[in-house]
Amino acid sequence: MRLTAKPSKAAELENFLRDGLSAVLEEPDTSTWYAVRFSEHEFAIFDTFTGNAGRLAHLAGKVGRGLITHGPELLDELPEIEHADVLAFKLTNESGQVQE
Length: 100
Prior knowledge:
Radius of gyration: 14 Å
Strand content: 15-25%
CATH class: Alpha Beta
CATH architecture: 2-Layer Sandwich
Helix content: 25-40%
Number of domains: 1
Largest sheet: 3 strands, antiparallel
Structural class: alpha+beta
Distance between the termini: 25 Å
């Protein structure tokens, strides 16, 4: 999901995304969650789930509700959720072992 901050709200959107991590850590079916920044006003969230139930629970969770509540104040346009299937991936754990 790409997020475009209103010109004067980029710092607030960045803080919202950083603060969102604590809520996402409580979601057992959210496998990965990334909040990223592309440019001064362009951000995105990329996440993966153990299944569709986890995705739906995440969308109804604290970050999703926060975007609904604060989105009109922070965002220049409505975000569009894009769905994709992961075809391949590589994860490395803290001890350097690759997880496929």
